Amino acid sequence: MSNFIKRVLNVFGNKIGEIKHGRYLKRIQRNTIKLKESKKSDFNRWANSKELREDWNERTSIIATMVKPNSLLIEFGAGNMCLRKMLPDGCTYTSSDIYARTPELLVCDLNENILLDLTKYDTAVFSGVFEYVYDVGEVFRQLSNSIDNVVLSYSCSDISNANRLKNGWLSDYSKKELEIIFKMHGYQIVEYKEWRNQSIYNLRKYLIM
Question: Which of 148, 103, 157 is nearest to 130 (CA)?
Answer without folding.
Answer: 157
